[in-house]
Write a structure and sequence with these properties.
- This protein has one domain: Nucleotidyltransferase, domain 5.
- Helix content is 41%, strand content 16%.
- It has helices at 10-23, 71-77, 89-100, 110-116, 126-134, 142-145, 156-173, and strands at residues 4-7, 28-34, 49-53, 58-61, 83-86, 107-109.
- It has a 6-stranded mixed beta sheet.
- Helix 1 (10-23) packs parallel to helix 2 and helix 5 (126-134) crosses helix 7.
- The radius of gyration is 15 Å and the shape is globular.
- One of its GO terms (biological process) is nucleobase-containing compound metabolic process.
């Protein structure tokens, strides 16, 4: 079993990303984003959490708790040689650009790949693809998805949910 790291500063982010990249045999990371639902924010909510995973370890980077976007994370996300796998990742890339001016490269949209290879009969969401391709039931509660990802503290349920998204995304590609 791997470790989920809750990252709240740029220095820790750089150190953990370096370790994660050395641990990844192929240049493939699982990727996802979370932000508060619109009904919890007076303005358009910004990305609050960036999730990246290697084989076992996951970084939950709380960008909402930082004064600026971590430079090491920006470098990884803008590096086209490092593939980032996720469901809905193209929309996530647009949101990241709009909110944090990070131009993500190397994004691999898993929904299109799944359909191309004959998967997705029961849907192309992360939960459905995880079950169909990996035979790994992903327990997803919409009540967790709709919580405040910019809250001062993340709950255990939020951390588990966020880590699973990144891990399953990577596992689906490799």
């Amino acid at each position: 079993a791997g470790t989920t790291h809750l990252v709240t500063n740029a220095e820790e982010c750089a150190r953990l990303l370096s370790a994660l990249r050395m641990d990844v045999p192929r240049a493939v990371l699982g990727f996802d984003l979370e932000w508060p639902p619109p009904h919890l924010c007076p303005t358009t909510p910004k990305v609050a959490l960036v999730q990246v995973s290697g084989d076992r370890d996951v970084l939950l980077v709380r960008v909402s708790a930082m004064p600026s976007f971590p430079p090491a994370l920006k470098d990884v996300l803008e590096d086209a040689r490092i593939l980032k796998a996720g469901v809905g990742i193209c929309g996530d890339a647009k949101k990241l650009l709009a909110d944090w001016h990070v131009a993500m490269k190397g994004a691999v949209e898993l929904q299109g790949l799944a359909v191309r290879y004959g998967y997705g009969e029961h849907g192309t969401g992360l939960k459905q693809l995880g079950c169909e391709i990996l035979q790994a039931p992903l327990i997803r509660h919409c009540r967790v998805a709709r919580t405040d990802w910019a809250a001062p503290e993340l709950t255990s349920a939020q951390r588990t949910y966020a880590a699973a998204d990144a891990l399953v995304g990577r596992a689906l590609l490799v």
